[in-house]
Write a structure and sequence with these properties.
about 450 residues; alpha+beta; FAD/NAD(P)-binding domain; 2 domains; 6-stranded mixed beta sheet; 15 helices; 21 strands; binds flavin-adenine dinucleotide
Length: about 450
């Protein structure tokens, strides 16, 4: 079979999964790696993400006196997703997580800390790690791209989209890419599909995630499911195609998001009738999206006070919402009710009955004695009209725990690997099963596994 050129490992997609797979594979001296990226200008989801990295059993947790482990992390994920079949994969990526979190901090200098201010539903202990300034995924991508630039055996080719796979006798032997306006055949011992999912492809979303077909789309335009299609054409199996990361705190008319910590600080969620309709702290933000989608007008209102506001403003996404004017500050419940067209009587009754209960920063989810009751919300109040959105899909090509893509026969397809949004993931078949941090865990964790498999 003829190729225009060959490398050892060809990576399609230069987001979290692709960059991690490249960096870790290229640790082995003499291994040549090429990353083919569709367009850094249009960007990747990692870049616009909050960059929160879930990992159990890190030195950051130990320093904070928090007992955790990859096993406990995996148990929390499986309890949320209900996808017992994925247990070997979930355990594998959870085992990788503390290793790559410490590697990112110690080897690449990414300024990580444990986010004690980042409580999330379903996480039995604090385990989200974030950069100290809460700059988010943009900083993570900058850190990883800089390391790629410094690696002499990695070539990063921007504006060079993959077009398809090359296979011979059922084994993948390379990839076709669009380089400088022409199709180029690149031979490779292994091809890593790291091109994310299909949330930016309306036809695929309608076919696989019909409940999100009309939802606001909050991801990048490059997630069009290309790699999943190539795998399927080769006979690969897919899984969890109906699973996605939803978001229940997208601000209506702005598309920015509120900080998901607000419910854990004691924020109140009401429908457009001024009444509560859900336990604010019991839902992950992905599941909350579905609950809001089921409301009249697909709308709800989140209300918080000055104490919560000061804490929530630590995150970049909240600062973005602020800059966009996506929420307002009100001197009284009356002013809020008038501005957001909520029935004042119902809202006043809800506010009187509601007590803001917060969890102490860093406390375990199963420690209700760490709750503080702050009593009713005190004006001035902040509020925003919120709706549901889809951020990324979480299903795709089924892999084994080392990232090898499986054929419908159940056997691995030789030479083909997938991770991140291109793979079937760890969040189960619906948007309810997503736990905070699963997206980057499926990307970085599988990349770590793939690289360990390729260059042990
Ligand atoms: C707003 C938002 C916030 C989020 N916050 C978090 C969070 O805090 N924590 C968390 O764990 N998860 C979060 N997620 C989910 C997480 O960002 C994704 O699950 C994760 O980034 C997926 O990584 P990836 O490497 O698979 O894809 P990406 O980072 O999207 O990278 C894929 C790359 O492939 C390229 N590509 C696509 N098609 C081709 C092709 N044909 N040829 C070549 N290249 C191609 C794209 O241009 C892109 O650069 C968030 C998502 C969004 C949208």
């Amino acid at each position: 079979m003829s190729f225009d050129y060959t490398v050892d490992v060809a990576v399609v997609g230069g987001g979290a999964c692709g960059l991690m797979a490249a960096l870790r594979t290229a640790r082995a001296p003499g291994v040549t790696v090429a990353v083919f990226e569709k367009s850094t200008r249009d960007g990747c989801n990692t870049q616009i993400s909050s960059g929160s990295l879930a990992a159990g059993g890190t030195r950051f947790q130990r320093a904070a006196g928090i007992e955790d482990s990859p096993e406990r992390h995996a148990a929390d994920i499986l309890a949320a997703s209900g996808d017992a079949e994925a247990a070997p994969l979930v355990h594998a990526v959870c085992a990788a997580a503390p290793q790559y979190v410490e590697w990112l901090a110690d080897e690449l200098g990414h300024p990580l800390e444990l986010g004690l201010d980042m409580a999330r539903a379903g996480q039995s202990v604090p385990r989200l790690h974030a950069d100290r300034g809460r700059a988010g995924g943009a900083l993570l991508i900058r850190t990883m791209r800089k390391a790629v630039e410094n690696a002499s055996n990695i070539a990063f080719l921007d504006n060079t989209p993959g077009e398809g796979l090359i296979a011979e006798g059922g084994a993948v032997t390379g990839v076709v890419v669009r380089e400088n306006g022409r199709s180029v055949r690149v031979g490779a011992r292994a091809v890593v599909l790291a091109a994310d999912g299909f949330a930016g492809n309306a036809a695929m979303v309608a076919a696989h995630c019909p409940d999100a077909a009309d939802a606001f789309y909050g991801g990048v335009s490059t997630s069009t499911g290309d790699a999943i299609g190539w795998g399927v054409a080769l006979g690969a199996r897919t899984r969890n195609m109906s699973g996605y990361l939803g978001h229940g705190m997208v601000v209506v008319g702005h598309g920015t998001r509120l900080n998901p910590v607000l419910p854990f600080l004691g924020a109140l969620l009401v429908g457009t009738d001024g009444r509560r309709f859900a336990d604010e702290r019991a839902q992950g933000y992905s599941k909350l999206g579905r609950l809001i989608a089921a409301r009249p007008d697909h709308r709800a209102v989140l209300i918080w006070d000055e104490r919560m506001h000061a804490l929530a403003m630590r995150s970049e996404l909240m600062r973005e919402s602020d800059a966009a004017g996506a929420f307002r500050r009100y001197p009284s419940a009356e002013a809020l009710a008038v501005d957001l067209a909520l029935p004042l009587d119902a809202l006043s009754a809800t506010l009187t009955a509601f007590h803001a209960v917060s969890r102490e920063p860093g406390a375990a989810q199963d420690a209700p004695d760490a709750d503080t009751d702050h009593g009713p919300l005190k004006p001035p109040l902040y509020a925003a009209r919120i709706t549901s959105g889809i951020l990324t899909t979480q299903g795709g090509l089924e892999t084994d725990p080392t990232g090898r893509v499986l054929h419908t026969s159940g056997a691995p397809i030789p030479g083909l690997y997938a991770g991140g949004g291109s793979a079937s993931g760890i969040s189960g078949p619906t948007s309810d099963g997503y736990m905070s941090g699963n997206g980057l865990l499926a990307a970085l964790g599988l990349a770590w596994q793939i690289a360990t498999h390729l260059t042990p």
